[in-house]
Amino acid sequence: MNILQIVFAAALVLGLCALFIVAMSRHKKAATGELNLMGALASVETALEPEGSVLIRGEVWRARTRQGTSIGRGQTVRVIGASSHLLEVEPISQ
């Protein structure tokens, strides 16, 4: 191997690592700051029995129902509380 091939291989590896880091950082929720989700509407992604996940503003969040009831996938819920990155939700009366 000549020096040019080594430099090219190193640049390729560094570039791929940088792309991986950028892609992973786009999916990370903010770890600081105040959650501004109270009262927001969300769609249930995985059934809440009483814990599952919801889709809100394009992000998937862990969520649970306050009363311990089950809510099926596709239902709409309202955020009524939060603890760390776990949202408390209630079903919307239709």
Return the domain count. 2
| Shape summary | rod-shaped
Low-confidence stretches: none
CATH class type of the largest domain: Mainly Beta
The computed structural class is: alpha+beta
Order of neighbouring strands in the sheet with most strands? 1-2-3-5-4
Instruction: Tell me, rounded to a whole number, the average pLDDT.
Output: 86
The appropriate CATH architecture of the largest domain is Beta Barrel
How far apart the termini lie comes to: 69 Å
What's the number of helices? 1
Describe the secondary-structure layout.
Elements: H1 3-25, E1 41-46, E2 51-56, E3 59-65, E4 76-83, E5 86-91
Parallel strand pairs: 3-5
Antiparallel strand pairs: 1-2, 1-4, 2-3, 4-5
Task: Offer a few descriptive terms.
94 residues, alpha+beta, OB fold (Dihydrolipoamide Acetyltransferase, E2P), 2 domains, 5-stranded mixed β-barrel, 5 strands
Describe the protein in words:
- The chain is an alpha+beta fold and 94 residues long.
- The chain folds into two domains: 1-29; 41-91, Beta Barrel (OB fold (Dihydrolipoamide Acetyltransferase, E2P)), CATH 2.40.50.
- It has one helix and five strands.
- It has one helix at residues 3-25, and strands at 41-46, 51-56, 59-65, 76-83, 86-91.
- The longest helix is centred in the N-terminal third of the chain and has 23 residues, at 3-25.
- The mean pLDDT is 86.
